[in-house]
Amino acid sequence: MGRQRILCVVTVVAALVAATPAFGQRLSLAERVTLLENKANVENQTAGQANLEMQNRVMQLQSEVQSLRNQVETLTYELEQLRQRNRDQYVDIDSRLARLEGGEPAAAEPSTPASPASAPAPAVAPANPPASPSADAPAADPAGEEAAYQAALDMLINDFEADRSARMFQAFIRDYPQSGLVPNAWYWLGESYYVTQNYALAVEAFQTLLAGYAGSRKEADALLKLGYCQLALGERAAGEASLREVPVRFPGTDAAAKAEARLRTLALENR
């Protein structure tokens, strides 16, 4: 009986000893699972935070882009409105001056070019002399002159049809050679050529005005644009000479300020 009890005790102890490693192993696996779960949770939280920050950044960038688009649209609209107001104002001023000039007596023979002592002549002689009155020229018609001139100007300023406006100004100069608007027509003919990059023809038109119509209110602008055209043609020395001449002959004018600004830009390019 005593031996049986001893055997039972030994058996129980052996069973407990055998069970101890398995219990410890189960705790180790549980701890490992817990560690893995905690690690996964931390990684998920970090990834979630990064995604949230990225989403917030994307939304912020989208908002900034939309704001910039709105600003661009607003500025584009305001710029177009400003351009339209400037065009309307310019056409209105030119139209009024055209009516005033058209109401004056017909212009006499074109005045001779200014002498070098008083006002330097253009760098290159004009290719086309001012149109002279012909025997079969139409009789003076101030209303017709103004209408033809205004139609050509509107074609350039409002409709942006430079090719057509050039033909219309040519026709005006041919049909109304004694009109007081002829100097203006020569200038706008040069502008029509200038905007279509026909610089050589623009040079001829501007030089014709400068050589044959001293004292015209378009003289300063014609000399400025002459310089621009010469630069565009690669005639840098002549272009700079024309630009330097503008503030000398027409100080304080808008054309003089533009000429000086262009000369400063050219000087910077030479550095």
In short:
The chain is mainly α and 271 residues long.
Mean pLDDT figure: 75
Strand % is under 5%
Q: What series of H and E elements makes up the topology?
A: HHHHHHHH
- Cα distance spanning the termini: 120 Å
Can you count the beta strands?
Answer: 0
Largest sheet: number of strands, sense, barrel closure: none
Domain YbgF trimerisation: 28-106
Coiled coil: 51-85
Keywords: Cell cycle, Cell division, Coiled coil, Periplasm, Signal
GO cellular component, one term: outer membrane-bounded periplasmic space
Fold and architecture overview:
- The protein is mostly helical and 271 residues long.
- Among the domains are: 77-107 and 133-196; 218-271, Alpha Horseshoe (Serine Threonine Protein Phosphatase 5, Tetratricopeptide repeat), CATH 1.25.40.
- The protein is 75% helix and 0% strand.
- The protein has 8 helices and no strands.
- It has helices at 2-102, 142-157, 162-175, 182-195, 199-212, 219-232, 236-249, 254-269.
- It is rod-shaped and about 150 Å long.
- It starts with a helix and ends with a helix.
- The model is unreliable at 100-137 (pLDDT under 50).
